[in-house]
Structure formats: C-alpha cells, structure tokens
Amino acid sequence: MLQFKNPSDVYAFAYRQKRDGKTIGFAPTMGYLHEGHASLFKKAAANSDVVIASSFVNPTQFGEREDFIHYPKNPVRDAMLAESCGVHALFLPNTEAIYPNGEEITVKVNARTDVLCGKSRPGHFDGVATVLSKLFTIVQPDHVYFGMKDAQQVAIVQALIQSFHFPIKLIACPIIREPDGLAKSSRNVRLRPDERREAPFIYQGLQHGHCCIKKGERNFDRIIATVSNYYHSHLKLGQIDYVDALNYPELKRMHPEMHGKIIIAVAVCYDQARLIDNITIEC
Q: What SUPFAM superfamilies has UniProt attached to this entry (predicted)?
C-alpha cells in the first residue's frame, strides 16, 4: 500500500489510474480506524479498481468546546488495517497540506444543518463540506463511501455532490454494530465500564420506535415521545442531547404524518463521549 502526505502526489497517482481507465473508490476518515471503517474499505474494494482512503483530523469541523487536540490517533495501526482491507493508497496529510492558506475560502452549508447534530454544533458541517470539497478535488473519485452512523453527514454529502456537480456517486454503507447493538465508534473507547454496559440501550430505544411504526403509528411526535420515554427509563448515566424523527435525506417533516423514508436519530452524552445512532425506515 502506498502512503502519501502531499496532495499533489495523491492527485498525480489518481490521475494515472483514471488515465488507464480504472475506477477510484474513496473513503475519507478521521483515522483511529475500526470495523466500521473496514467495512467501507472492503465495499470500495469490491466495487472499484483502486481504493484510496484518507486519514485527516479536520480542525474546521470541531467547535470551540470540542476536543480537537486529544482526538484519538493511531496511524501505524490505521495503515495496517487499511492495507488488510484492500486499500491501495492512504492519504495522510497535515493541516498545512489541506489548508495552505488557512481558511481563506470555505464552504457554507445552508440546508439540512439546523436539526440533529447540526443544531448544537454550528459550523460543523461547513467544516465537513469544506474539507470534502478539497479531498474530492485531490482524489478525483468515481465513488465515495460513507457510513450511515452519521446519517446527517451522508445527507449533506449527497447535497454537496449534487450542488457542486461533482462527478461522484455516493455509496451509503450500513452501520456496523457490536454484538450487543452499540454502533461502532472511535469514541466508544472513552466510555467507562458502567457507561459501556448502559450504551446498548441507545440502539434498543431506536428499535422500540421502529416497532411502533411497524404497528401502524405514523405521528412524528408520538414516535419521538415513545423513544424518549424508553431512554428516560433506561439511561441513568447518559444525558439525551436529542431524539428526533424526520424525512430522509431532506431532514425535514415533508408530510403531516410519516411518509416515505424516515430517520429516527439520537445523540447521548456521557462523561467523555457523545454517541450518535439512528435507524432509517420506509413508511
């Protein structure tokens, strides 16, 4: 597996692949890789001739109170995992490589950001859209792979690709879970043992909401109340940031009652970790 730190080297590598008629699958990450990332790499390897991954902790998507400095990193392990999953080239830039002129030019996201995580993280998705615009230009992918654990991000990336006419197809991949249902996340290592024992209730609460929909409930507010009441009964250590139900990927309520594709999403804050999870349902 090749490793690059300079954007021009990645661009040249990608250019050669496309000149030779090969398709490029790209999985951008912030490193500290786990099985969820591995599933993206394997999906890309199965559908593309060449797989490129990036590992870059993007400072512009961290808020003032978020811990950018101590975001977990393990580049040696990351490289081993990426190579074992079929990645051909790993892009490991530093901040200066991605932002050579600081933040002179950025991307502003005007829709799909005032709900879910975006509601309490102003500017976060502007940072995501800015760095992805740069990475898409450097890597020149045919397909990009994102996990549905951050479903709001997937919806915004879809809008970014459409709005800027990137010639890219977005592949949204299923959430990878622990045997007890907890969504895989680099933040799970920050949970205390008692928090880790409680955290599977997050997914169980979403399943509780899904069951209500399967039984015929179509009122958004009643579904939210059902899931919230479950959490109030089962989460003693975690603090609920939000529970919401919306049409997806619009992230709005497009109809008076549930219709089409729906997302039920939640964020729960523990002492050193904020966990998100969701399920999507066709109504």
A: Nucleotidylyl transferase
